[in-house]
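Bug #77: duplicate submission created two jobs. Keeping one. Sequence:
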Amino acid sequence: MHAEGNAVVSALARLFGAANGGEALPLSGIRERASKELSQLASLVKEGLDARGITIPPAISLISCPGCQLIVQGDHPQREAIQALLADDQRIAKYFKEVEVLFEVVRAAENAGEVFPEDSCFHVGLTSAGAVAYFDDHRCTPTPA
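Kept job's structure:
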């Protein structure tokens, strides 16, 4: 466990840069970074959507559950085309996971000591007004290959 803790601290130090004078990284800095990365994820997805002629609205809901791939949630009229984009562009899935980790760090810091349900999944909603990230309980059903 101690080695894992050191690895996490090292990864956070690389991600956010060395903290001033060895002080702890402020939660506001992590929140700001998470928000910035969410916007960049939205831009990356939008590029792929634009290339396929897919527009927003309607909103798009992306979700990633433990043991599941990144999927489109709901009944979007172009769901299959969006799912194909997610399957074709691994950068989106990788970036989604990076954003998810940042938001998990924020959630854990804001709710210290709280145990979250196993079926709590990270969601990103893409709307014409921008992106929104949140956690919600969800039973993930793998998509057919």
